[in-house]
Design a protein that fits this description.
By secondary structure, this protein is of the alpha/beta class. The protein folds into two domains: 205 residues, P-loop containing nucleotide triphosphate hydrolases (Rossmann fold), CATH 3.40.50.300; 83 residues, Alpha-Beta Plaits. 30% of the residues lie in helices and 28% in strands. The strands form three sheets. It has a six-stranded mixed beta sheet with strand order 6-7-8-3-9-10, with helices on both faces. The protein has a four-stranded antiparallel beta sheet with strand order 2-1-4-5. A hairpin with a 2-residue loop joins β9 and β10. The chain is elongated and about 75 Å long. It binds adenosine-5'-triphosphate. Adenosine-5'-triphosphate binds next to α1. The site of adenosine-5'-triphosphate has 10 residues, from α1.
């Protein structure tokens, strides 16, 4: 069995009476590329900070590379890369100075050539000062700094936030570069589901601090489905299908979002409900995530008002 490099057991954080993270149990094996997903405020940053020992849990525990997160030794820290939200870097330093500063923490393992290649690939110069870089360029420097020590485990909190599509693509390619170095493990949070779909092989979804899904990308893609059923007369009042997430009705159509329901079950129920006409609707990961995490009865936020004469 693959070695577990990131583990949380009942990891919990309360702020006042409210749980930001509620009993998170995760076991991420070596070599896994894990997309850590959740809507704003779901608890991703809170979980990541506790995994890295930067925030004390209210209950439960986390461990990285077999070492408890509250007690990570310098030797273990050297094997872990971390890219934070917002890419906080010393603004007055040049890229070259920042490299020297960072390199001092990883004297044995710093890959100077790799760092130089990445800086060149991102069309930056080591002479540039951080304060003169754009947000996207700072993100690129952050990634190069995180990858140059050749970490076994890379944890990134929304690393592509605010980056344009081209830079995001370059950033992902940088990540793939790391991944292809054998046995590397990555956990990254992101709201860009197309990126997650491109690189992740496993996804973890949390919602209001609670774990809602932890499975392979393919399993999630195959499980969340949308079907539209067409009726000659009125639509049935009840839908007796386990795994029903959302049901939207119009006069002669039912649109159902389902989790873990196979086509035969849909066909059987449709027949009992009086129709044999239905279509499965193509969904990308973003559509699936939205359906999976959206509350069932959403109040309408905006209403178009006709201009009064
Ligand atoms: P986003 O995608 O918006 O970055 P997130 O999933 O990273 O969100 P967290 O930042 O972990 O979410 O926040 C989880 C919950 O904890 C939120 O409801 C947030 O308001 C709350 N929270 C986070 N930090 C604090 C704090 N220092 N004090 C009080 N509440 C906090």
């Amino acid at each position: 069995m693959a070695e577990i490099v990131l583990e949380t057991k009942g990891l919990t954080k309360y702020y006042g009476a409210q749980p930001a993270l509620d009993h998170l149990d995760l076991r991420i094996p070596r070599g896994c590329i894990c997309g850590f997903l959740g809507r704003n405020g779901a608890g991703k940053t809170t979980a990541i900070k506790m995994m890295l020992g930067l925030l004390e849990p209210t209950a439960g525990s986390a461990s990285l590379l077999g070492c408890d997160s509250t007690d990570l030794t310098p030797a273990i820290r050297q094997r872990i890369g971390y890219v934070t939200e917002g890419h906080r870097l010393f603004r007055w330093m040049t890229i070259a100075r920042l490299e020297k500063f960072q390199q001092a923490f990883f004297p044995e393992q710093w890959d100077e050539k790799f760092f130089a290649d990445m800086i060149e690939y991102f069309e930056l110069s080591k002479k540039q000062k951080i304060k003169h870089l754009s947000n996207g360029q700072r993100a690129q420097v952050s990634l190069a700094l995180a990858l140059a020590p050749n970490p076994e485990l890379l944890i990134m909190d929304d690393p592509t936030l605010g980056l344009d599509a081209v830079i995001r693509r370059q950033f992902l390619e940088g990540m793939i570069e790391l991944i292809t170095r054998q046995g590397r493990t990555v956990l990254f949070s992101s709201h860009i589901l197309a990126d997650v779909e491109r690189v992740a092989d496993r996804i973890v979804v949390i919602d209001k601090g609670v774990l809602r899904a932890d499975c392979s990308l393919e399993q999630f893609r195959a499980s969340v489905r949308k079907v539209v059923l067409y009726f000659d007369d009125s639509v049935p009042a009840d839908v007796e299908l386990e795994g029903l997430l959302h049901c939207r009705r119009s006069e002669r159509q039912l649109e159902l979002t389902l989790v873990g329901v196979d086509e035969a079950e849909v066909a059987a129920w449709a027949k009992r409900a009086g129709t044999e006409r239905y279509d499965f609707v193509e969904m990308n990961l973003e559509d699936q995530f939205i359906e999976f995490t959206a509350p069932p009865h959403r109040r309408r936020l905006f209403q178009w008002e006709e201009a009064r004469p």
